[in-house]
Amino acid sequence: MSNSSGRKMHEQGVALFRQEAYPAALEKFEEALGNADDSRHSAEIYNDIGVTQTRLENYGAAHLALDEAMARFTELEDQKGQAQTLGNRAALYQAEELLDDAVEAYKQSAALFEQAGENEMAMYVWQAVSRVRMKQGRHIEAIGAYEEGVDNMPKGSFKRTVLQKILRMPGTLLGTGSSASDEPDEDEDEED
Fold first, then answer.
1. What is the percent of the chain where pLDDT is above 90?
2. 20 to 30 A from 134, CA-CA: which of 52, 100, 123, 145?
């Protein structure tokens, strides 16, 4: 089969995954793996296999697939691929109820996304950390993680400005005039 058929099988696997047809998606990913274009494409497929195995609760197989994806992305010096794989590993830890391990993997993922200049992706990862910390009842750490995500939004963006004001609101309501983060907002106008 040609390499383009490997890409097509991979795309079909992704479509099946989105339909939550996980066993069929896994079968298509494994078929695509035998027809992958190159090491990067194989790494992407292994990453998708890891995510699919997580959804199927085959955690051992998920770890093996993500190990293989990480090894290939590392060999390629692909920080974005490594960051995505670490994020998927964190989701796997979360599924296994290993929440502290999930947070650490998410933090490593966010750091790699930041190094790769993928600040928006880093923002989403920090939001995932915040959700895990909320689940653990560690609310101050959840707010801190959410602030990290907000800090990764483009400076001057409307959404960043609004979220920073919301994060300062609890301190304002309590009469302390401070927020969870006492750092000044460099995005605010002097008139505020």
1. 52
2. 52
Residue 188, pLDDT > 80, answer no
Distance CA 158, CA 154 (A): 9
15-52 burial, b for 16+ CB within 10 Å, e for fewer?
ebbeeeebebbbbbbebbbebbbeeebbbbbbbbbbbb
Task: Specify the pLDDT at position 146.
Answer: 57
1-77 and 99-175 have identical folds: yes
CB atoms within 10 A of CB 156: 9
Residue of higher predicted confidence among 159 and 84: 84
Q: How far apart are CA 71 and CA 82, in angstroms?
A: 9
Q: Which fold, 99-175?
A: 1.25.40
Alpha carbons 156 and 49: distance in angstroms, whole number: 38
